[in-house]
Amino acid sequence: MLLISCPWCGPRDEAEFHYGGQAHVAYPQDPSALTDEEWAKYLFFRDNPKGPFAERWSHSAGCRRWFNAVRDTSTNEILAVYRAGEERPATAEPKPARPAFEDKAPSEPIGGLGAEPSAGVQGAGPLVSGRGGVGENQPFRLPTGGRVDRETPLTFTFDGTEYQGFRGDTLASALLANGVIQASTSIKLGRPRGIFSAGVEEPNAVIQIEEPFPEPMLPATTVELHDGLVATSLPGQGRLATQPDPARYDAVHTHCDLLIVGAGPAGLAAAAAAASSAARVILADDRPELGGSLLGTGELLDWADELGTRLESAPEVRVLRRTTVFGYYDDNHLLAVERRTNHLGAQAPENVSRERVHRIRARRVVLATGAHERSLAFADNDRPGIMLAASARTHLHRHGVLPGRHAVVFTTNDSAYAAALDLAAAGVQIAAIVDTRPAPGEWADRARAAGIEVLPGYAVTGTEGEARLTAVSVAPYGETVAQREFAADLLLVSGGWNPVAHLFSQAGGKLRHDEALGTFVPDVVRQAVEVAGSANGTFDLAAVLAQGAAAGARAIEAEGYSPDAPALPAVPVQPRTTPPMQVFTVPGRDGAPRFVDLQRDVTIDDLARATGAGMRSVEHTKRYTTAGTANDQGKTSGVLAGGVVADLLGVDISALGTTTFRPPYTPVSFAALAGRDRGVLSDPIRTTALHGWHVEHGALFENVGQWKRPWYYPQDGEDMDTAVLRECAATRESVGFMDASTLGKIDVQGPDAGVFLDLLYTNMMSTLKVGMIRYGVMCRPDGMVFDDGTVIRLAPDRFLVTTTTGNAATVLDWMEEWLQTEWPELKVHCTSVTEQWATVALVGPKSRDVLGSLAPQLAISNDDFPFMAWRETTVAGIDARVCRISFSGELAYEINVSPWEALALWEALYEAGAPYGITPYGTETMHVLRAEKGYPIIGQDTDGTITPHDLGMSWAVSKKKPDFIGKRSFARADAVRPDRKHLVGLLPEDPGTFLPEGTQLVAESELPAPPVPMLGHVTSSYRSAALGRTFALALIKGGRERIGERLYAVVRDRLVPVTVAGPVLYDPEGARRDG
Amino acid sequence: MADTALTAPPRSPLSHYADRLAAATRTSQGAVRLAELPFLAQVNVRLDAKGGAADAVGLALGLQLPLEPNTAIRAGESTALWLGPDEWLVVGPPGSERDLETRIRAAVGEEPVSVTDVSAQRTTLLVSGPGARDLLAHGCALDLHPRAFGTGRCAQTTLGRTQVVLVARDEPGAGFWVLVRSSFAGYLTDWLLDAATEYV
């Protein structure tokens, strides 16, 4: 969401503003002097440039001031704002894009030479005879080590079998501890698939939660284990719950100086640099524990824990655990979802929201989102037991779990060696490290020193095993025939690393291909964000820490705070790195599938069909094959797919780029996005002061805008038709009353009020006498009616304008727009008083008697209180303004009182009217009564293409006024066409036939061959008690010239004969108005 | 008939919510306090801030009209809220609206000014207590941190899905006034009570 700077109120969310089109398009001085073409140019033509564009905005939910902004239409960046009436300023240049990390120096690896081998896994004892140390039921669990709490065993069920795990497990790690690795079958091919990773990137182990509440398609690698969890594997696709979700969801707006996304080494270092300043810092991480990749490598965890404690106690620092920042929008607006009670299972408190969306507005952002390991497209690369190398290391260090016992490692880079060494130290037998690089360097030396065979220049050519991997065959890289075969239940794969650049890319950042790293890394960006650590392509731990600290310090310094130079932990020296080899496609056993996207079952062959069909862009191959479109969104497969396509096309991957990263980063439930905007709170409900009475008296309600208006009041099981006929008859024959409080009311004050209203309305308002009322019509400059209502003159310099219920805010905005942008010299102000007054319409021949009994001081005869006059008096002892207005053709009054006293008035009327059978009526009866009189409802009988003349209201269009809004358009050729649609009455020849609103009208009794000439359509249709028949209003081409003609209404497959009539069907001579 | 009407007490938009607001306040054990402040006098004033009228009104009311956007000035029982560069809302104790209007009109003399009684247009919710900012932050996009929206600040903005005038009251711990259009008051109160679930 854009942050727009109101010249008065400062930066506010875009949602508070209303767009007003191109600025500096002045209303012509004398529209009547313009040719049709010049006038049409003013009406319809606006510039549409790419780049800076001056446009009008209104701070409609704030100070209601119109102002101008220069916005770059290609970036949405607002370059300048200035007040209405001011000159357009010299436009500032758009902000240049800045590098993703400001200072390039610390991004070089600074690991030392001649490294000592690391001590391996702390506390991880080798397994004895293939059995774990914590009981028979978790055979793959180590007796010690990891971040799980072995004192808190948890029982869970997966695919009907009960297992045990520990607090701190994910569902995936607990399954692995129990020796379960297959967690799904694939969506198209039905092949068994195993746990592939240890995080959000998981493509395979996407499961269904059954209890405590059904939820589909969650990666088992991110589901925190809790007691009583019941889950099932999925054949690639989940099931939504059929019962309503009882949990609460909510949202919160959060502001900070610095948002750090990711609490791995870079994010923690950034937080450390910012923590003790007074800056407001948020550190968000999607896992329950801080540490990020450190949790997976087992490094520096004491530092992470200590820092976490310090951050928790810093007053202006918020640590958001279990919080995924999933969207990065304009002006550093980021959305995050916090999973607050999922991990508590059945213990989740009912009054705490299950998930919370944080709408974060951050002055600065540091993205420390890490990197995802990618796979390789080798033969049979999808069997359960094939796992990303670093993920296996994570399961070991974080959960004390061995994903297998006999492993082969297949890599193109150094990172898998550390995984192999740690797993070997923990008791996994590493049969071989298969490295595509001919000279793997120091890490290979270290592996050999640990007794592990390294096969340089080799690759995996095929695998065996159904429910689980049993064997891996290898050959020199490039050959397809196996030379050696290893028995193995685990194949660890590393095809390199992809920086998690999703949020950076959503922020508008550009990526570039880094040859040395063999992947895409953040390049430049316009928003106030930096990227640190492996998310920026930096993988050396010491450099990652230094980058994070520098980025954090720079961010808060830019916001005026003094950063700390945090004490960063010492990092043990590591072997010298050897550059990775860029490999995507691995030749292998003939006929074996080589999967690129495991979740979508997309193989190299599928991509070859796409390129064979002529696709040359990764966006096209993605859509052709569906690679990258599953709910993992291709986190492990996206770059791999790009690489394979590059191989197929014989181009470099850098030329292809990546597919677009769109929010959300990980799936977010609709329930979380809806928050509390659901059920009765999904949309505001507006009620009048009399709402309670209507409810008590059985009213059904109609939504008019956000208002709840009584629709009709059924009695004793009446249906709608019966109730409305009864309400109409009672009102026409005696007296009815209606709550009309929802009409918009605007107080227009100032010496120029009359001049102003003369410009707004088509008819003359300045000649209205104090004490009198006039009906008026408002048009847009194009001459089309957009609102109508009455205007009351309260004083020489004060009018009260009423609007239609749904248009009150629009009309007020309309008035402000003209006053502020075109006629600032007019001394007049408009104030909404819609809710200052409650209005009761008292209607019918007996209304005078009822009013008279309650307003003894009021001279009430027709002469004393004529039609279209208003009086101040007391009604039932309540101060009231009574207007003699009729929207039904009957003698009628509108009584306006304070809403604080509206119920007392209403009940007094009900009581005083009882002898006459006073009948409350709703909007449906109001519509019937007005339609019988041919009074249009703007917005129902009009649709923005209808002039006052079309409505037969030429009498409401002044010929004396030199100009008013819309006047010039009445002289356009289009406005005087003889075949314009006119509002007329329509009488079905069968008086019982009801025409649905929207029914089309044609000339002939049989439909000719298409195209059928359409003459118009029904806009309102009712059953009339007064006429004893059905009737309708319709917009018909040349309608007034067709009165008396027979036309045909197309009702489903029937052509219903109808007769065109004048619009006023009841009391056309107006005899009933004065009682 | 007239007699019954005369004796009927005025009804505020949230009179039927009083019990639920009180219950939420009670069960939150001090975390949040929610109440309607009904019938406050509210007078909308429009005048040209560049002329002498603003000062004249200030003198007449003993209450300066704030010229800094989005601020409020209180004097005694009355508060003037900035709503726009030429628009203020003067809030006073219940029943004072006629007096306020008369004094303002008298003060400006011949200067063009609009004075409109809007006391029933909005009602006022009090949201206070240590949890008040967190509660409002569920539905208000403004930064309510004391550094950004401290005492004496006011703003027209949206809360939940409705427009409000938000006022940070000037005594420490006095919380916020939320002025809401009367027709939206029921919706907003339902929303606030729902948002308060976690605090009560």
UniProtKB/TrEMBL annotation, chain A:
Pfam families: Fer2_4, GCV_T, GCV_T_C, Pyr_redox_2, SO_alpha_A3, SoxD
Alphabetic keyword roster: Oxidoreductase
Domain (Aminomethyltransferase C-terminal): residue spans on this chain: 981-1067
A single MF term (Gene Ontology): sarcosine oxidase activity
UniProt-annotated stretches for the region Disordered: 85-152
SoxA A3 domain ranges (all copies): 594-676
Domain GCVT N-terminal: residue ranges: 690-961
Domain FAD/NAD(P)-binding per the UniProt entry, residue ranges: 257-514
Protein's GO biological process: tetrahydrofolate metabolic process
Entry's family note: Belongs to the GcvT family.
Protein name: Sarcosine oxidase subunit delta family protein
Species annotation: Streptomyces guryensis
Record lineage: Bacteria, Bacillati, Actinomycetota, Actinomycetes, Kitasatosporales
From TrEMBL, chain B:
Domain of life of the native organism: Bacteria
Gene3D superfamilies membership: Heterotetrameric sarcosine oxidase, Probable tRNA modification gtpase trme, domain 1
UniProt cross-references to Pfam families, sorted A to Z: SoxG
Protein name: Sarcosine oxidase subunit gamma
Organism (species): Streptomyces guryensis
Highest classification ranks of the organism: Bacteria, Bacillati, Actinomycetota, Actinomycetes, Kitasatosporales
